[in-house]
Write a structure and sequence with these properties.
mainly alpha
Length: 106
């Protein structure tokens, strides 16, 4: 379980970080950032799909969405100084609750 959670967080860092690099590459028109972002997207996909094989695809992606949401909010705050609104935090609570339900069956 700890390995799966670590892989989900690692995948979220790769995907959200890759997206941030692609976004920056489009603004700066600098292709090395674009290529790095694309490679990060590919690595995310491999990492997630190799680490969660004990879960069916729907549950794996549902749990991944939790990790992606949390990591995205942290990166948005750190990189873009974009703090989540109350509505985003409420939605996040629902997302996290859904992830707990998917993992534990509660």
């Amino acid at each position: 379980m700890i390995g799966l959670v670590a892989a989900l967080i690692g995948g979220a860092l790769l995907e959200a970080g890759g997206n941030a690099l692609v976004r920056q590459a489009l603004v700066q028109r600098w292709w090395p950032l674009l290529v790095t972002g694309i490679v990060m997207f590919a690595l995310y996909s491999v990492l997630i799909n190799r680490s969660g094989l004990e879960l069916d695809f729907g549950r794996l992606m549902g749990c991944y969405i939790v990790a992606f949401f949390v990591v995205s909010q942290i990166l948005a705050a750190l990189i873009y100084r974009d703090l989540p609104s109350a509505r985003t935090l409420l939605g996040g609570v629902l997302i996290i609750g859904g992830g707990i339900t998917l993992l534990t069956g509660v």
